[in-house]
Amino acid sequence: MANIMEMAADIIAAHASTTPMSKEELIAELNEVYSALSALEKGELMETGEAIEEAPVINKKKAFGKDKIYCMICGKGFKTLSRHLKTAHDMTAAEYRQKFDIPRSQSLASKNYSETRRQMAIDRGLADNLAKARAARAKK
Questions:
Q1: Which sign does the torsion angle of CA 86, 87, 88, 89 carry?
Q2: Which residues lie below 8 Å from residue 38, measured CB to CB, with a gap of 6+?
């Protein structure tokens, strides 16, 4: 089995081959990976950095696409985000909006998905049924 420093160097070499890094970033990353591998070998619990988790993986402009909406925590794309947030991140839509400063007016569903659902509701006459129900309620 390779020693920890060799394993850390291999991991950093693989990362650096796809991501441009300065000398200082390489050294810092090597120290972090070495510390993590050492802690794993000793069976210690590693501290996870909250600052890393707080930074969005994808920016707001790119997160809200026409066909997909991307999770700013993990970067995965979905038609709608609510179920993913609850199952994968144990977070409500309100908590997600607050964490990434997303206004309530911004839908957490892709534009095409919302349009498709809207058109389906119009085709089924759901707006007419709602108007009838409101009128009936107003009469009472």
A1: positive
A2: 4
